[in-house]
Structures are given as C-alpha cells and as structure tokens.
C-alpha cells in the first residue's frame, strides 16, 4: 500500500517537474536568467509556487543536458559558453543543417516545400515582431530537418539547439538580421524546389555562417563572450 501511494505521488510530481524544466529553459533562452547566474532551489520554488522537489529534478535534467553546472561553494549556475565551444557548436550546425538541406532536396514532398515557402513568407510579413520571427524561424528549420527523413540527424540537431539556448535571445530581434535570414531562407527553398542537393547544402551553410557572425557580434557587444571555458564534462 505504501509503495502504491509513493508511486501515485511520484506520478503526480511529473507535470510539476516538466513545468519547472520548461519554465527554466524559457527564462534561460530569453535571457532573463543570464549565463553565470546562480540558481537557488528555494528562490525558484517560491517564484514558481511549487515545492523544491520538482525544481531540484528540473535542475538535474538541465545539468545532464549541459545547460547548468554545479560549482563547489557556489551552487547551481547557468553555464557560460566560451569562444572555442561556441565555434564548435556552430561548426556542427553547418554540418548537420547543411546535410539536412541536401537530404531534403531529395526526400521532401511538394507539400513540405510549399510549407517552407509559406513559413518564410509569414516571416517576411512579421517584420519587427521578434517573438513571432523567432517562433517562425524555429518552425522553418524544424520543418526542413524533418523533411530530410533521418531521425538520427533530427536528434543531433536538437542537442545542438538545446545547448545554444544558453546564448539568450534570438539574433532575429535585430531587424537587419531578420531581413538577411528571410532572403537566405528563400535561397534554400529555391534550391530545394530545383532538387539541387549541393545548392541547398551550400545555401544552408551560408545561412548558418551568417547567423554565427551576427551572434558573435551580439555577444561581444554585450560583453558576454568568454575567450575560454572549462566546457562540459566528457
């Protein structure tokens, strides 16, 4: 009986843990909790109006995923990405998303190609709305990666994107970058429609390189780019 009661209680805590996890992830990705910031279970539990147990479990998940780390005599802090790791992450984005575009040129359905074009058109119509542009950009990349028809590639891209949440708000909040990204997406879609795998891959790699340059400028401008870091545990 005691075992059954414990199982029910544990099951009831799962939604709270999931909620705490997504709330923390959103605050990190939006920049409300900055890299290097200390996170305390007590303060967070009070702010989220829940017990410390789901908060603790959410922090453990974020630590396992490499977004936060535990420092002796300090506690849990949001990880800071240094220049070397940032470059490595973007290099992987070039490889993975460039490969996704090449595969999608062969495997994407006409419906998926039309959806990609429609999402990009909606981005163009959402100029100035940073939140909408961010959501639509995620949708564009998610749709393209799914069209590659490779589940292992999808998992790898998600892992990279998760770590990049540490960097804070999207570069698409800058109007000039949003305009560039829309034009870059259009070139990717054009190559996909032509079933030009090499062209689609080159266009996507150019898109990733442009995003990287903007991100580096943004981090330097706000003094948030470390020259080195300890990095995640191997």
TrEMBL record:
Q: Which Pfam families match?
A: FCD, GntR
Task: Please give the Gene3D superfamilies that the UniProt record associates with this protein.
Answer: GntR ligand-binding domain-like (1.20.120.530), Winged helix-like DNA-binding domain superfamily/Winged helix DNA-binding domain (1.10.10.10)
Q: Does the keyword Ribosomal protein apply?
A: no
Highest taxon of the source? Bacteria
Please indicate if the UniProt record lists Amino-acid biosynthesis as a keyword. Answer: no
Mind listing the UniProt keywords for this protein, alphabetically? DNA-binding, Transcription, Transcription regulation
HTH gntR-type domain sequence ranges: 14-81
Checking InterPro entries in the record gives: AsnC-type_HTH_dom (IPR000485), GntR_C (IPR011711), TF_FadR/GntR_C (IPR008920), Tscrpt_reg_HTH_GntR (IPR000524), WH-like_DNA-bd_sf (IPR036388), WH_DNA-bd_sf (IPR036390)
Q: Which PANTHER family match?
A: TRANSCRIPTIONAL REGULATOR, GNTR FAMILY, TRANSCRIPTIONAL REGULATORY PROTEIN
What is the recorded name of this protein?
Answer: GntR family transcriptional regulator
Supply the source organism for this entry. Alloyangia mangrovi
